[in-house]
Design goal:
This protein is α+β, with helices and mostly antiparallel strands. It contains 15 helices and 18 strands.
């Protein structure tokens, strides 16, 4: 594929580029002028006017040369034209600009960052036309990625535009320049990280924690819906249709084989996936499969108001038997609050809930090693659910509130915009625990089922975010944070 940007590069290091052809023509013109002057002097027979004629010719040449130098320097320090300003900024150090001082200050001080994608024809000059169109609007190209297609190329830009420039104006200019299927949205400072660095960071997070895979895919692919479907559903029935090892890419949907079986489905209806994005997503899933099950083993020992020490730690399927025993010790009312109805086969539920593929789980463990509480942060497509279960004998001690604060802190760290809890309207303990977060809450009640959504835009209090004070808040401090 040929992507020629040279036809829009007319300057180098802030000065015009001088080509050897132009220099040769100018030298030939000087020599011709000297020859003409000498011929005129010979025709005059080196009479009294001969030296004067030569001096006049020399003065004319000096004047022309001086004018040429003045004009060149003036162009070199003049504001860049559309050709000069259209070169990709990814080749320049951060913060550099060839724009005049006042314009550069406006763009950097009051400018807006945009992420833009557009499809162009795979032919020389197509990228140059786009760059020239953006330069006319004083739009700075900070980075550029290309995604080759069979019949064209998807160009992905990170742009810095003047603050008063609307997205529709940028899209219109790109369309006139030959771009099609243009998509544009606001970007932020996190998008300034180049693509290889971002992908390596996501791979590192995935390598440290299996629960990071859905989050890494979401950050890699932008706003999308990710669903993990187990090979055997928790409630029985048939599992999803199997996919080949290499996965399936269908326009705005990609399906990947999950490492433990089942299928990971990624949907982005507003923007088709490119083969490059598909390859990157598949590489992350393959990395997760090679590393196998893994969960960070950090844990915190806390002291309850009654003097008991408990340990809060991450849990996975290795804790399934201990979690099942806790379920057997719970009353039907407590289980009904948690699962919104009778619990049939708890083992199947726990296999799903404890899998890092579907979220993160915190376990509360006594000094004897018995699990007495579980808190789940579940990835539900593009939403996030929190769920709590505390054994009857350990309720009203602040355990539910402590688990909830930690789960919400994890959601904030993962970049979630909100979390929701589904419970019964009679579960005053869960309502009190959600209110104790100090976050904006939305309530929806339908036929006795209560859905409480907490918006995470507002910062949590320091003790709520960290949650490691060496002592769990008392029941009075958390509003009787009874787990459902």
């Amino acid at each position: 594929m040929t992507r020629d940007i040279s036809d829009v590069r007319r300057a180098k290091h802030g000065r015009p580029v001088h080509h050897w052809r132009r220099n040769a023509v100018e030298l030939a013109a000087v020599l011709t002028a000297v020859a003409v002057a000498e011929a005129a002097a010979n025709l005059n027979g080196f009479g009294p006017d001969g030296p004067a004629l030569l001096l006049a010719a020399a003065a004319l040449l000096v004047t022309l040369a001086g004018f040429r130098v003045w004009r060149t320097r003036r162009q070199g320090h003049a504001p860049p034209t559309s050709d000069t300003d259209a070169r990709p900024r990814s080749e320049e150090p951060a913060g550099r600009s060839d724009q005049p001082r006042d314009t550069a200050a406006t763009v950097s001080g009051e400018g807006a960052l945009w992420r833009m994608r557009t499809t162009v024809k795979d032919e020389p000059g197509s990228l140059a036309a786009l760059c020239a169109a953006l330069a006319e609007l004083r739009v700075d190209i900070l980075s550029l990625q290309t995604h080759p297609l069979a019949d064209g190329t998807v160009d992905e830009f990170l742009l810095r535009a003047p603050g008063g420039l609307a997205a529709a104006e940028i899209s219109s200019a790109v369309s006139v320049a030959g771009g099609s299927g243009t998509w544009i949205e606001r970007a932020d400072a996190h998008d300034l990280v180049d693509a290889p660095t971002r992908v390596l960071g996501l791979a590192t997070r995935t390598a440290l924690d299996a629960a990071e895979l859905p989050l890494a895919l979401r950050q890699l692919l932008g706003r999308c819906t990710i669903r993990s479907l187990p090979a055997v559903p928790a409630v029985g029935g048939r599992g999803p249709e199997p996919v080949p090892v290499e996965g399936v890419l269908e326009d705005t949907v990609m399906r990947l084989r999950a490492p433990e079986g089942g299928v990971i489905t990624v949907v982005r209806p507003y923007l088709p996936f490119t083969p490059t994005e598909f390859a990157r997503a598949r590489a992350l899933v393959e990395l997760d499969a090679r590393l196998g099950p893994r969960v960070p083993r950090s844990q915190d020992v806390l002291t309850l108001p009654q003097g008991n020490d408990i340990t809060v730690r991450r849990a996975d399927n290795g804790d399934r038997e201990a979690a099942k025993e806790m379920h057997e010790r719970c009353s039907p009312r407590t289980l009904g609050m948690r699962y919104h109805g009778p619990v049939g086969d708890a083992d199947r539920y726990l296999k799903h809930l404890l899998s890092p593929r579907f979220g993160r789980t915190l376990a509360v463990q006594t000094a004897s090693g018995r699990i007495v509480g579980l808190g789940h942060l579940l990835w539900d497509g593009d939403e996030t659910e929190v769920a709590l279960l505390v054994e009857d004998a350990w309720q009203r001690r602040g355990i539910g509130g402590e688990l909830l604060r930690r789960l919400v802190a994890m959601a904030v760290e993962a970049g979630c915009e909100s979390v929701y809890a589904v419970t019964q309207s009679s579960n005053t303990g869960m309502v009190a625990a959600m209110r104790a977060l100090g976050l904006p809450l939305d309530y929806q009640i339908e036929e006795g089922t209560l859905v409480i959504t907490a918006r995470l835009g507002a910062p949590l209090e320091a003790e709520s975010v960290v949650g490691i004070t060496g002592r769990v808040s008392s029941a009075s401090e958390t509003g009787r944070a009874e787990a459902p």
